[in-house]
Design a protein that fits this description.
Blueprint: H1 3-31, H2 36-40, H3 48-57, H4 64-76, H5 90-126, H6 128-142, H7 146-160, H8 173-179, H9 181-207, H10 210-217, H11 222-260, H12 265-274, H13 278-306, H14 314-318
Helix pairs in contact: 1-13, 5-6, 5-9, 5-11, 6-9, 7-9, 7-11, 9-11, 10-11, 11-12, 11-13, 12-13
């Protein structure tokens, strides 16, 4: 299958999946207990006339399918509606909070990739006591949830030692990076352990391959054997795990942002869910679904590049 045909097919699949996801996202909020009208009234009693005015303003009395189609048409034009909580356009809210979330995820991903790959490499190559120590360390990391790591890091390095800010996202790129250092580490800790163990396992499997034995018999330096014949052949498995890592980062950022009061999309999603801010929750949920599918598409497109034995579409058919 050619690259172009595969990419077009996957984009069509993404569009269909997004359409189905949009219906689920829109409908799920209306199945939850409570209503936007009760939040807008802040618990106060209201006359039937006042309730009717609110329902007409926000089209809450329209049939479900009519509301969905109206919302979908607005989304296709880049309009996610108006926030019930903040009384402003949802698009503006997302634009203000998206940079902090993207920088946090990017920093956490960098930490995961660098440390996870290095630990996995060392564990597979060195073996012995070093490998055992790395296994114990990564097991502890995998067993530590992100919100627990956030509380521990915040209490030690921000509150007690005062080395890092305890909350907020800062202003400007460098200040934001400084404020997001602890949240990024908390977000990355669990995934570092997972990537290290996957890398170690993949490299140990590759070390047992016949091509490695042949390379060594030909006198190829060990460092070159590890780099070209072991690590490179492990990248397919590592890349597949990388897609899962990015998806997990997008989900776990909600907990970490709330713990550090980052003020990104994750914290906005939590607050909007609590206050029944339907338009905001629907917009963020749809964006997260779209990011998930984009990550999976990129993994599928990159997989044949890091592992020539894989052809476009073969992983999907084998699954």
């Amino acid at each position: 299958m050619t690259f172009l045909r595969f990419a077009v097919r996957r984009l069509v699949e993404m569009a269909v999946t997004l359409l189905g996801a949009s219906f689920v996202v829109f409908g799920a909020m209306y199945l939850a207990p409570g209503s936007p009208a009760s939040f807008l009234l802040s618990g106060r009693s209201a006359s039937p006339a006042a309730l009717q005015a609110i329902n007409e303003q926000y089209h809450l009395d329209d049939p479900f399918l009519v509301r969905y189609l109206r919302w979908l048409g607005q989304v296709l034009q880049g309009d996610f509606g108006r926030s019930l909580t903040y009384r402003t356009d949802v698009s503006g809210l997302l634009a203000d909070r998206l940079p902090a979330t993207l920088l946090l995820v990017a920093m956490a991903l960098l930490v995961v990739v660098v440390i996870g790959l290095v630990l996995g490499w060392i564990g597979a190559v060195r073996g012995g006591t070093t490998d055992s120590a790395i296994l114990v360390t990564t097991t502890l990391a995998v067993g530590t949830p992100s919100f627990v790591a956030a509380v521990l890091l915040q209490g030690l390095f921000a509150v007690k030692l005062g080395w890092f800010p305890s909350s907020g996202a800062g202003e400007g790129l460098l200040d934001m990076a400084w404020h997001l250092t602890l949240p990024a580490i908390a977000l990355a800790l669990y995934l570092i352990g997972m990537l290290a163990r996957v890398t170690r396992s993949a490299m140990l499997d590759a070390l047992e391959g016949e091509h490695v034995t042949v390379a060594r018999s030909r006198g190829v330096p060990e460092r070159e054997v590890i780099r070209r014949h072991v690590f490179r052949n492990s990248l397919g498995t590592v890349l597949t795990t990388g897609g899962l890592i990015v998806s997990t980062l997008l989900v776990c950022t909600i907990l970490v942002e709330s713990a550090f009061s980052v003020g990104g999309l994750g914290q906005l999603l939590e607050l909007s869910t609590t206050t029944k801010d339907f338009p905001t929750v629907q917009a963020i949920s749809l964006i997260i679904v779209a990011l998930f599918m984009t990550v999976n598409l990129l993994v599928d497109l990159l997989h044949p590049l890091v592992d020539p034995r894989v052809t476009l579409g073969s992983r999907r058919s084998d699954a």
